[in-house]
Every structure is written in C-alpha cells, then in structure tokens.
Structures
1.
Amino acid sequence: MLRCFDEQEDARLRGQELNLAIVDAADPDHVWGKASLYDVDLDEARAAVACWLAPHARGRGVATRTLRLLAQWAFDSLAIARLELTCAPDNVASQSVAERCGFVREGVLRSHIRFKGERRDTVVFSLLPGELR
Ligand SMILES: CC(C)(COP(=O)(O)OP(=O)(O)OC[C@H]1O[C@@H](n2cnc3c(N)ncnc32)[C@H](O)[C@@H]1OP(=O)(O)O)[C@@H](O)C(=O)NCCC(=O)NCCS
C-alpha cells in the first residue's frame, strides 16, 4: 500500500514531486520503504521514478509492484508520456526491477552526479505508455 507524506504536501500540490511511503497493507504503521515521482514536468509530460526498500522488505516483489502501480498512475492520471529511472551502474537490483517492469535501458550518462566526494556515472532507463509489464 502507498501513503502520502503529510510534510511533502506542498511539493505534491505544486505538481513537482510525489513522495510516498510503502507500507504493509495489514499494518499501515509498518513502513517498508519509499517511492518517489520527481522531476515532474507536466508541460513536457515527463517524470522520473525511484524506489527504496528497507533490507527486510527486499527480494519479494515489493519494488516491482510499487513501480508498476506508480507508473500506471503517472500514465493514466498525469498523462505522462516518458517516465525515467536512473541508478548506479552497479545497482543490479534496481536494474532488474526496471527491466521486469518494461523499462528500456538507454545508456550511461558519464560523470553524471556527485557521489561521496567523487563523480559517478548513471544508467538511464525509460518507459513509455504501452510498455509497462
Ligand atoms: C532497488 C530495490 C528497490 C529493489 O528491491 P528488490 O527487493 O530487489 O525488488 P523487488 O521487490 O521487485 O524484488 C525482486 C526480487 O524478488 C523476487 N520476487 C518474488 N516475488 C516476486 C513478485 N511477485 N514479483 C516480482 N519479483 C518477485 C524476484 O524474483 C526478484 O528476485 P531476483 O532479483 O533475485 O530475480 C532495493 O534493492 C533497494 O531499495 N535498494 C537500495 C535503494 C536503491 O538502490 N534504490 C534504487 C533507486 S531507483
């Protein structure tokens, strides 16, 4: 189950970002992780998506289900035409989840971000309406 963070309401109302807690449907106080729709540009119909899970919640399909729900909602409710997912080149779990959902790997953005005092490459994936699996 996905729940909105009250303190993130301003960003949601500005149409820029949606940050959600991933919680156990049977015990909503039990938080499994967080999912975000960010860099939302409604004029260009683009957004990016990301997901983080606590170690105890990994390896049982929670991230895959979360990304599918959020992507479907972004396509249906926000008319998003391109959804991006980026991650570190060695983040195998994240890339597996992206490909399982139908995201297409587009390539590597070299020296893309600052990370722990160095610069780091980023792998970029995209998902278009109709490609969600
Ligand atoms: C990236 C991350 C979210 C992926 O979580 P995850 O638990 O590997 O992903 P899922 O919840 O979809 O689980 C997938 C695994 O569960 C298994 N699984 C079990 N039931 C499943 C189901 N119904 N549907 C999909 N997968 C299922 C799959 O076989 C898969 O295992 P595999 O990767 O060995 O093939 C998690 O590792 C994480 O939070 N990492 C740290 C933060 C991070 O890097 N975030 C990425 C930013 S985008």
2.
Amino acid sequence: MEMDLPQLYRQVAFLPKRDANIVLKEFCINNKWRENAYIADFGSGDGSTTTNILQKYLPISYKKIIGCDKSARMVEFANENYGTDKIEFIMWDITEELPQPLRGAFDHAFSSYTLQRIQEQTFGKDYQSIR
Ligand SMILES: C[S@@+](CC[C@H](N)C(=O)[O-])C[C@H]1O[C@@H](n2cnc3c(N)ncnc32)[C@H](O)[C@@H]1O
C-alpha cells in the first residue's frame, strides 16, 4: 500500500508514536547518542514522529535530524509543518543508492514503521557510510 496522505496519516499515527517511545526509552537507558550528532530518520512520513518523539530523546547538542522519505507529498508536508534549521526532510527511497548529502554524514539511523514495508531487504555497501 502506498502511503502519501500526510494529513490523514498524522491523525491516525498513534501506534508508531507509542512504539517509538517504548523503543527510544529503552535505547536511551544506556545513553548511546554521540554528542553533536547527525541523525537520519528513514521513512520519516509526515514528520510528526521525527519531531515529537525522536527529537525529545536526543541530547541537546544534536546538530541535525535528516528525515528521508520516498513520498514527495510526505516530504513537502513534513518540511512545511516540522522543518526547522535543525530538522530537514529530503526525498529518498532507501532502497536506492545513498544520496550525496547523507554519505558519511550521519552518526545514528532511526526508523519507525518503515523497514517492514520494504520487500528488498538486502541493503548495499552504502550503509558503511554511517560515521
Ligand atoms: C507508516 S509510515 C511511518 C512514518 C513515520 N516513521 C512514523 O513512525 O510515524 C511509513 C513511511 O515510510 C515511507 N516509505 C516506504 N517505503 C520507503 C522507501 N523505500 N524509502 C523511503 N521511505 C519509504 C512511506 O512513504 C511512509 O511515509
């Protein structure tokens, strides 16, 4: 199922937010975030989980979150509603080659309710690009 109705998605996406909170709480017990980190959010959708959930678990020193989504409508909505100087949303299908702005340019990768939607799970050598 294609998913590119950001306004509708925002109204119904309570389960991803609940589960992202659970996962991030557990992850944050060991405080694994780097200082001055760049974080990629794969399949960021309407941007509300990125901003309202992921962001609140990051150390204040974080430099930037880059949300990536293959849907132009999701990316446009996310930038309009949640874009800031520290949160940017770009179009990228994560089964495709990593785009230049992300190469070697992020410390952590987060993803919520997206990877299970991807049939081709054999991601390539680009994933060595995490700093
Ligand atoms: C269920 S939404 C999750 C949105 C957000 N992460 C959340 O937790 O609320 C799944 C998102 O993954 C995106 N998506 C699906 N396949 C993708 C792919 N191959 N590359 C990038 N984004 C993808 C969809 O466009 C959609 O916005």
